């Protein structure tokens, strides 16, 4: 059995698959290890949104774009908090990555690229994804992987978690130790390689690690179930370091299924003003408004929620608004909505604001004062938060509140790497022979303190491709 390879890739997902494929295409002997029973990682669940500047698709549509413009856009949206070296590396090589996918069968949705979707928009149309989300990308990667498996350049082992990294006396990483299942029994094996690349994803399905690294609770259970942070722990075990905690940001919230955190999502109120103007007001755990409800910038709304206790708020309205406004939850009927109140913990109804506040656990005086202030602003046509859409006051009982919870399905904190994607120790020196790419780097490095369209999947694919294309390969022996 071959135990020595040119390259060992830990994680067969968005970054690991292209790393293995491109190395094998150069003649490398690659061991591709995956803890899950199937390949794909987060591509199985994700939207697979990508952003690249200077693509063949843009040229065909007459869209003028450049890596510099892409870089500038990411740094603008992130307000300079994304890592400049990693953003530059992404922007400079993303087009080649996208074109490679497109040349091998990836098809974007009609009308793409677009400026933005669910995130702060770009200034140029460079944002794309496929009809089947991340699986559209995975389909291409599978087709590229198959011939390398067939010719033996890549050895793939699924359901094979890496338990530790193997170090030489010099401190250089020279291999991995894995847990294997052989003929129904568990065993341990050691594999050695010239290079080891960690692409094992994030930690968004590990609540204790999520809270330890991010400093906030993990409220939702929606991430890829094998995102346990094992790769980060491997990097730390040999002296690697992490960063990104200060960049944690949640989405603007969902209605969760229950209070047994982490839990699943029940629904989401439509809080994007361009799709549905708000008739309601938003109150935080102090019973206070905290954001202009029709704020056009999703980034501003998300940052406003980041400062609120427990990333939580209540959407509050009265009977007049319930009767007149479009239903807040897409796809729900009025009857379905009304049936939830006082039968589901996130939906509350009461005959007075004081009673509503008590049911929600909010200070009654603050809730009443917030509603009174909003109503006065409506009469004066001058809202304290600058809100423009002021349809109806809140005053006709009964009163309603729908609790929204900010949460995350990606990992903010990640291993520190340099522009060559070498894992770095706290002092800045690289861990010899160890590299990392993908969500294991954390969104806090590739997106900073913002959600920047395509800056999770695109860097992962691009960095994996770059490592597979550039790492020196020798002559692996059995």
Summarize the structure.
The chain has 14 helices and 18 strands.
How many individual helices?
14
Question: What would CATH call the class of the largest domain?
Answer: Alpha Beta
Structural class, by secondary structure, is: alpha+beta
What low-confidence regions span 5 or more consecutive residues with pLDDT below 50? Answer: none
* Overall pLDDT confidence: 96
What is the correct CATH architecture of the largest domain?
A: 3-Layer(bba) Sandwich
For the termini, the CA-CA separation is: 7 Å
Task: Name the CATH superfamily assignment of the largest domain.
Answer: FAD/NAD(P)-binding domain
Structure write-up:
With 478 residues, the protein is α+β, with helices and mostly antiparallel strands. The protein is built from 14 helices and 18 strands. Helix 1 links the parallel strand 1 and strand 2. The protein is elongated and about 75 Å long. Helix 1 packs parallel to helix 5, helix 1 packs parallel to helix 14 and helix 3 packs across helix 4. The mean pLDDT is 96. The strands form 5 sheets. Strands 1, 2, 5, 6, 7, 8, 17 and 18 form an 8-stranded mixed beta sheet that branches. A 4-stranded antiparallel beta sheet has the order 12-13-15-14. It folds into 2 domains: 302 residues, FAD/NAD(P)-binding domain (3-Layer(bba) Sandwich), CATH 3.50.50.60; 151 residues, Succinate dehydrogenase/fumarate reductase flavoprotein, catalytic domain (Flavocytochrome C3, Chain A, domain 1), CATH 3.90.700.10.
